[in-house]
Amino acid sequence: MLYGKPGTGKTLLAKAVANESGVNFISIKGPQLISRYVGESERGVRETFRKARHAAPTILFLDEIDSLIPRRGSSSTDAHVTERVISQFLTEMDGIEELKGVVVLAATNRLDLVDPAILRSGRFDLLFELSLPDEEIRLKIFKIHTKNKPLAQNVDLTKLAKETDGRTGSDIEFVCRKASMFAVREYIEHNSAKKKISAIGELKVSKQHFDEAIKMLKEQNGK
């Protein structure tokens, strides 16, 4: 079970595990299996596990599992539906038909909302928290997302890593993408049509563009 704040790389880690192991990868978001029709949610759970067994060896990744297996008694939805879905899920995990060649990974932003029954030994044996990246890791993430980008000399990735304390990997990706977009927009606005092609090498992503992107991120997140 992978858990942590949104944007810390839970889904990315699951894909990396599948890629490195060289097995099939089936990814399902919890809400996809929820249906308002009687019996459909349980059928969706059964079908998902059936496909995983058929494609073995495979990694079955269940994202946002807290929406599929919420803590019983905490949901405002039909309690009977929740009970049936949880029972079906536990049956698939513990049932007579073994999950040979199938590894089940799950992810949630709120581990406290997941029903404790699926967290006991024999089901999800490992709980792995993905915490916010520290300064060293943030610097590495900046380097990954600025690779091959035409950075101006006034761009200091180390300083940017310091300025983004408390941000997730997806936040840093957003900053790098937006900074590049700001640079392209500025280039287009300040160059004539004839010069655009001949001066494309002059396009640079500067510190100002990163500052604008960080400001936008703060405005979107409210901090």
Strand order of the largest sheet: 2-3-4-1-5
> Which regions contain 5 or more consecutive residues with pLDDT less than 50?
none
What oligomeric state do these chains adopt? single chain
Largest sheet: 5 strands, parallel
User: Which superfamily, in CATH terms, is the homologous superfamily of the largest domain?
Assistant: P-loop containing nucleotide triphosphate hydrolases
> What is the H-and-E element order?
EHEHEHHEEHHHHH
- Helical fraction equals 40-55%
CATH architecture of the largest domain: 3-Layer(aba) Sandwich
Q: Figure out the total of helices.
A: 9
The helix/strand class is alpha/beta
Task: Give me the Rg, rounded.
Answer: 23 Å
Instruction: Label the overall shape.
Output: elongated
Q: What distance separates the N and C termini?
A: 29 Å
Number of domains: 2
Average residue pLDDT = 87
The amount of beta strand, in percent, is 5-15%
In CATH, what is the class of the largest domain?
A: Alpha Beta
Concise structural overview:
This protein is an alpha/beta fold and about 220 residues long.
Structure, explained:
The structure is a single chain. The protein is an alpha/beta fold and 223 residues long. It contains 9 helices and 5 strands. It folds into 2 domains: 2-129, P-loop containing nucleotide triphosphate hydrolases (Rossmann fold), CATH 3.40.50.300; 135-221, Helicase, Ruva Protein, domain 3 (Orthogonal Bundle). Helices cover 48% and strands 10% of the residues. Strands 2-3-4-1-5 form a 5-stranded parallel sheet, with helices on both faces. The longest helix is centred in the C-terminal third of the chain and has 21 residues, at 169-189.
